Amino acid sequence: MKINLRKEMFTEKEFVLAESGAMRATAFRYSTGVEALKIENKKGYIIVLPFQGQGVWDICFGGRSLKMKTTVKEPVANVSYLETYGGFLYHCGVGNIGAPDASHPHHGEIPNKAYGEAHLMVDTDEKGTFMALGGALDLDIAFVRKYQFRPECRLYEDASVLNVHVELENKRADAMEYAYLCHINFIPMDGAKIIDNATMKTVHKAIPDSFTDAQKADLGGYMDRLEADRSVGDTVGAPGQFYKPEICCTMIYDGARGKTMQYVEGEGACFVDHDAEALPYTIRWISRTETEDSMGMALPATCEHLGYDYAKANGQMKSLGGFETLKFDIVAGWIDDAEAKKVKEELGK
C-alpha cells in the first residue's frame, strides 16, 4: 500500500496515519513547523522528515536515542545546514559535498531541500512487514543540470536497523558530475570499540586559528598520534583523545561492502554496512565538546569532504551518463550482541 503524503496531514496533534502488524506510523509537526513521521516497530522507532531532505531526525532502539548530541533540538525549515543540524542521517550532495565553497553550500543542495513528492509504503516482502518513507526531489537548472534524487528509508517489523536505498537519475542527455555523502551521526558510547574492515588513508589536520597555543598543541598532538597509529582512536573515550571541535579522517574499505561497528561488548553495536564500490571514500567524523557529542564513525561518500576544487583536482568527482541512474544501499542502526559478534568474526577482529 502506498500512501501519498500531503503537508496538510501533519498538525501539532499527533495522529496515527497507518498500522500494520506491530508497526505504526504517526504523523505530527514540530513546534518549528517541520513535518515529521514517527515509524514504530517491535524494537523502537525512527523519526523521518518527509518534506525536508527526507533525512532521519531520530533513531531509538534499545530504549535510547542513538543520534548525536547538538544544541539543535528540533529541525528547522528554510535555514542553513548547521542551523538545523541535530539529526541522525542526512543525504548530502549532489553538486558537491563538504565545506561550502563557490560551487555549493555546506554539504551540497539536498540535505534540507523541500520535497514536492513524499509517500509512505506499507508492505510485506521476504524479510517481513515493513514501512518505508520515500519520495522524489527534482532539480532543474536550464543548460546546467537536471536530475531526480529518490531516497527510501525502510524499517522492518523485527529490525533495529534502517535499510536506506538511494537512486540518482540524470535527466539530461549529457553526462553529469555528481557527489554524494550519507552523513550518519551516532552518539559516542565511552568504552565501545570501533571495529571495521577499513584502513586509514588520511587524518585531515585542520586546526582552528582561534585556538590557543595549548589547544593547538592538544589537537595537533593527538592528530599526529592518530596518524601514526589508528588504534589510539579505536576505544571510544580512551585517555588522551581530543576531538574538540572535531577530527575528520578518510577511511578506505576492503571488499564490496564496508562494515563499521561501535561495539559495546555484551550489549550490541551501532552499525553501518555500505556499498564500498559506489561509495569508495568513507569519512570518519568525531566531535566531542561540552555542547556537542557525535560519533560519525562511517559517512559513506563518493569523494572526500574538502570541496569541489579538491575533489576535481584529485580525480574524485563521479560522472553519471546521460539518462543513466545510479543505485546503492546503506544499512544503519543498532544490532544486538549476538549479531555484533557475528560481524566481528566475519571481519576477523
Explain what you see.
With 349 residues, the chain is mainly beta. It has a single domain, classed as Beta-galactosidase, Chain A, domain 5 (Distorted Sandwich), CATH 2.70.98. The protein has 3 helices and 22 strands. It has helices at 213-228, 308-313, 337-346; strands at residues 2-4, 15-20, 23-29, 35-40, 44-48, 56-61, 64-65, 89-94, 117-125, 128-141, 145-156, 161-170, 176-184, 193-196, 198-204, 247-253, 257-264, 268-275, 281-288, 293-301, 318-320, 325-336. The strands form 4 sheets. The chain has a 9-stranded antiparallel sheet. Strand 6 (56-61) and strand 7 (64-65) form a beta hairpin. It is globular and about 55 Å long. The model has no long low-confidence stretch (mean pLDDT 96).
Throw out a few tags for this protein.
349 residues; mainly beta; Beta-galactosidase, Chain A, domain 5; 6-stranded antiparallel sheet; 3 helices; 22 strands; 9% helix; 46% strand
Give the SSE order as H and E letters. Answer: EEEEEEEEEEEEEEEHEEEEEHEEH
CATH C-level category: Mainly Beta
The fold-level CATH name is Beta-galactosidase, Chain A, domain 5
Mean pLDDT: 96
Specify the oligomeric state.
Answer: single chain
User: What fraction strand?
Assistant: over 45%
Main sheet strand line-up: 1-9-10-11-12-22-18-17-14
Q: Which CATH architecture would you pick?
A: Distorted Sandwich
Alpha-beta classification: mainly beta
Rg estimate, integer Å: 20 Å
Q: What percentage of residues falls in helices of 4 or more residues?
A: under 10%
Note the main sheet. Answer: 9 strands, antiparallel
Q: What's the tally of helices?
A: 3
